[in-house]
């Protein structure tokens, strides 16, 4: 299974008064991981936007396991859990540097026309990208 890894240093502005990472920042880190995965396999989300498509989140799940704190580095692991005609599910693990799981999650995305918000398959928008996602999702099965 192909898993992208990227890391972020926990900034003071991402924490609450106790020095613990505020929960919404994990979602930002998931986006960082997803973008890193997309670029790592040779594609760019902004190219889809230029061609008139958007990829909104239609479902999101996160489970918090062990708090991250100011000054630590978070390792973001991202992969394709599934890819179908109209939906792609990404999986995530956010780890402490020692490998302890801080959070896990999934985000489900669809592809829509920018002007109409009508769903469109990635196969139609970018057949090469669709084929790569299908390959990576099969590796997981």
From TrEMBL:
Pfam families the record matches: 4HBT_2
Gene3D superfamilies, per the entry: Hotdog Thioesterase (3.10.129.10)
EC number: 3.1.2.-
Domain of life of the native organism: Bacteria
GO molecular function: hydrolase activity
InterPro entries linked to this entry: 4-hydroxybenzoyl-CoA_TE, HotDog_dom_sf, YbgC/YbaW
Keyword vocabulary terms for this entry: Hydrolase
Family to which this protein belongs: Belongs to the 4-hydroxybenzoyl-CoA thioesterase family.
PANTHER family referenced in this protein's UniProt entry, alphabetically: 4-HYDROXYBENZOYL-COA THIOESTERASE FAMILY MEMBER, NOVEL THIOESTERASE SUPERFAMILY DOMAIN AND SAPOSIN A-TYPE DOMAIN CONTAINING PROTEIN (0610012H03RIK)
Identification of the protein by name: Acyl-CoA thioesterase
Taxonomy of the source species: Bacteria, Bacillati, Bacillota, Bacilli, Bacillales
């Amino acid at each position: 299974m192909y898993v992208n890894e990227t890391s972020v240093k926990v900034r003071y502005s991402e924490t609450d008064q106790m020095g613990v990472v505020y929960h919404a920042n994990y979602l930002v880190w998931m986006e960082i991981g997803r973008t890193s995965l997309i670029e790592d396999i040779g594609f760019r989300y902004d190219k889809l936007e230029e061609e008139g498509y958007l990829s909104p989140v239609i479902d999101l799940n996160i489970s918090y396991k062990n708090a991250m704190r100011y000054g630590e580095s978070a390792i973001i692991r991202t992969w394709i859990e599934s890819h179908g005609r109209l939906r792609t599910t990404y999986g995530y693990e956010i780890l402490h540097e020692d490998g302890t799981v801080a959070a896990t999650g999934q985000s489900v995305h669809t592809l829509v026309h920018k002007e109409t918000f009508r769903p469109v398959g990635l196969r139609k928008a970018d057949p090469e990208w669709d084929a790569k996602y299908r390959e990576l999702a099969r590796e997981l099965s």
